[in-house]
User: Fold this.
Amino acid sequence: MGTRGRIQTPLAIFSGSDRYRWHVLGAVLIGAFMSALDASIVNIALPAVTVTYHSRLGVVEWVSLSYLLTLTLALPALGRLADMFGRKPLYNLGFVVFTVGSFFCGAAPGIVSLVLWRVVQATGAALLQSNSLALITQVFPERERGRAIGLQGAVQAAAMSLGPYLGGMLVKHLSCQAIFYVNVPIGIVGTMVAWLVLPAPAERKARVSIDWAGGLTFSTALASLMLVLTQLTAKNWISRHTSLLLFLAAASVAVFCLIERRAAEPFIKLSLFRERNFTIGNISGMFSYMALFAPLFMLPFYLEKVLKLDPEKAGTLLTPVPMALSAVALFSGYLSDKFGVRIFTTGGMALTAVSLYTLTTLHSNSSVFDVVWRLALLGVSLGLFTPPNNRSVMCAAPEADLSVAGGLLNMMRSLGMMCGVAFAQFIYSRELHELLDKAAAETEPVTRQLRYHDMMLSFDKVYVAMIFVAVAAALMSVLKERQELAGHKHLETPLEF
Assistant:
């Protein structure tokens, strides 16, 4: 392979290596591990944050909510910028911003500054996540792409399973600030590795047009929808405020489509959604995270209020989901390179529906083993689905739009998480309010009215609803085209451009 046309990096020894693509994957995995660890490590520390900063729970919730809102809003915009100006500089910037944000989160003197620095931290995470899948797709040939994406999914799942345990240990033996400081050494190492090995961006034309109007209208629509999801209440789920936000979201989407059809360099190319695998993969991916996070929201209530487990044991019992997901993701990504993605995405979501059904059979006398094998089955099903689905989406996008495609894919994942949690919270709180009202009307003690089978009813409603979501995702996956890699034939030899 000649020198001309080869990806250029600061260290020629890496770019000249036959295993260069694996060095790039190593840099991507550091970012994947760090961002996934942070996503799962914070929630376990929120009670301690409430005490440390002398704040109400409603305020402390914004430590998590501000991160998720910023991450979701920034993903498509930063993906577009990476496609325009280069993935390496923005990925490196992501490490720097995330590391700086993590340090100042730990050093925050009050709850307001902590929330603000969480916004900075989330911006760094968005820079990393919008480019990770794009970099993998850029440097790996078709025959190895699923394996690499599967490895990334496995590392993310492993970090998610480690987060609650590590967070609990840090809070118990050090402080709640330690959960942020732990990211600093990882970020420093990641910054150095990424600078040394990531492929340099291709030369761009001198003048680049940025579609500010498209970006603004898209962000307005997305922000409005997410605010609606955060404000659903049990007794007044459609208020004047939420109705206004829904109208604003719909109007912004309409204006966005008009702008993008006329823009010379659109914020998001609408032609991407003409690719069947791209559209189906994004929607079914959102459904998969709804089907995962709705039960994950409900299960702690079941474990602590019905089975009477303490929070530490309840958190430990949730780890089979990411552990099983991590183990299976390694193989599903590899096998999708050989047998295609449709069998794994369809089968994975069908198995998700089965695993959700098994959750409806839990009762107040279920054993720990009863819970563990059901959660492991849920993790296996998502492990079968996620890497092949991600692969199908990325391979349906042209090389020039890989980062925006990765940003949209991760954005849909965040939307799925928020929709799943919002739906579960709405159903559970509505059932709880109905039980309290019934108890008050019958002048009976509330504790007697809140019997276990009444609580299980609200759990089962959520699980059944998510079964329909999983079945819909499985049926959509059947419609995927058999050949989704045609758009990347030019990348069969990954280091030549």
